[in-house]
Amino acid sequence: MSRRLGALAVAAALLLSACSSGTDPDGEPADGGTAGEAGWSYVSGDGKTYTADEVPTRIVAHAYAAKALLSYGITPVAVYADGPIASDVGLQGVDLTGVEVLSEEWGVIDVEKAATLQPDLIVGDWWPAEDAYSGMEGGVEEESKKLADLAPVVGPSQGDSIVDLVEGYATLAKSLGADTAVVDQQRTDFDAAVAAFEEATAAKPGLTALAISPYEDTYAVAVPEYAPELLDLQSWGLDVIVPTTPDPDFPYWQSLSFENADTYQPDLLMFDDRNHPGNEDTLTAQPIASSIKAYAAGATTTWPAYWLHTYPDYAAQLERLTTVVEQADENVGDA
Predict the structure, then answer these.
(1) How far apart are CA 254 and CA 40, in angstroms?
(2) What residues pair up with 296 in beta bridges, in sequence order?
(3) What's the half-sphere exposure (Cβ side, CA atoms, 13 Å) at 225?
(4) All domains of the chain, ordered by start, with CATH?
(5) What is the pLDDT of residues 235-257, one digit of tens each?
(6) Is 95 helix (H, G, I), strand (E, B) or coil?
(7) Virtual CA dihedral for 310, 269, 301, 169, nearest 10 degrees?
(8) pLDDT number for residue 155
């Protein structure tokens, strides 16, 4: 660690501290986050309450977290992304004018540049399955993980529902001083989109779907337990198939060889939209593609994989998927 990095870490430690899980400074249950004359506090995804004498203003955020904060008028000083920002489906429409970009590659973050910005808060999703925040997971460069030495890392948890994650960012933004009056209308529009989706799935009770991400020589099938947007779709009536044998070392997926890509026969095949249409092209090139009934019938679409963080984005995806469900044939997989 450089001397400057160490000095900033000490300064951050003096500014913010992690307190006992789920309580405010007076020992009362915390409500998620507060900002005011008494300072700042936020119950983060790791279960700890973070406090400061002043509301943090110099924020470095994972790009998806930054999009959420920006939707509430909170502009970070820098972002780190998992890939090229211009081509990231989850970052379409985001305006990063004046914001430093510390990374456009997963697992690699320019911590030295981040140090010069003197951040007082790092924001990213908390991933319970990996016991880490975005950018701090296993496989990330050790040098890049030193971003956490610059300031405390906070953010809502990935869990059983993207709705909870979206609400978590709204709470965080409010604690940082955002005017969240707009969130009420956003939530109203979102609830209307959910209702329309539920109506569509109720009309197709036998419809099954499979979420996939083919690449190279692997037919990867998503495990809904670790994909909260898929859990949401299940809770709203879509029968998303649960693969039987998740990969033991990374249970987000069941990795099949293409020779076994017809193991599951859904009525609707949903491609990971982060890699689309390349992942669909990968499947197209495989001889077995014609044996996957949904693919052969043209019953394909995309699913918003791991990037939803705002009500407007989620509502737009639900509106699109509602149309897909309304047009789908719930007997394709049985043909």
Answers:
(1) 42
(2) none
(3) 13
(4) 3-179 (3.40.50.1980), 183-334 (3.40.50.1980)
(5) 999 999 999 999 999 999 999 99
(6) coil
(7) 0
(8) 98
Q: Which helix (H) or strand (E) holds 64?
A: helix 63-70
Pair 13, 50: CB distance under 8 Å: no
Give the per-residue pLDDT at 108.
96
In single-letter form, the type of residue at position 93 comes to G
CB distance 5 to 115 below 8 Å: yes
Three-class secondary structure of residue 103 per DSSP: strand
Q: Output the CA–CA distances (angstroms, integers) from residue 181 to 34, 56, 117, 145, 320, in the order listed.
A: 16, 21, 30, 35, 26
Closest alpha carbon to 301 in 282, 262, 263, 327: 327
Nearest to 149 by CA among 128, 116, 122: 122
Say if CB 300 and CB 270 are below 8 A apart. Answer: yes
CA contacts within 13 A on the Cβ side of 208: 14
Range list of β-strands (E), 138-252: 153-154, 208-212, 218-222, 239-240
What does each C-alpha distance from 187 to 6, 66, 124, 175, 192 come to in angstroms? 42, 19, 22, 19, 9
Tell me the three state secondary structure of residue 27: coil
The one-letter code for the residue type at 17 is S
- Give me the pLDDT at residue 180, please: 76
The answer to whether the CB of 39 falls within 8 A of the CB of 58 is: no
Task: Please answer whether residues 126 and 133 qualify as being in contact, where contact means their C-beta atoms are separated by less than 8 angstroms.
Answer: yes
pTM of the model: 0.82
pLDDT in tens, 83-113: 999 999 999 989 999 999 999 999 999 999 9
Angle, CA of 86, 89 and 91, to the nearest 5°: 60
Neighbours of 38 (CB within 10 A): 12
- Name residues whose C-beta falls within 8 Å of residue 115's C-beta, 6 or more positions apart in sequence: 2, 4, 5, 8, 150
Residues of the chain with pLDDT under 70: 1-31, 33-38
Q: How far apart are CA 245 and CA 247, in angstroms?
A: 6
My answer on whether omega of the bond before 277 falls inside 30° of 0, hence cis, is: yes
Q: How many residues does the chain have?
A: 335
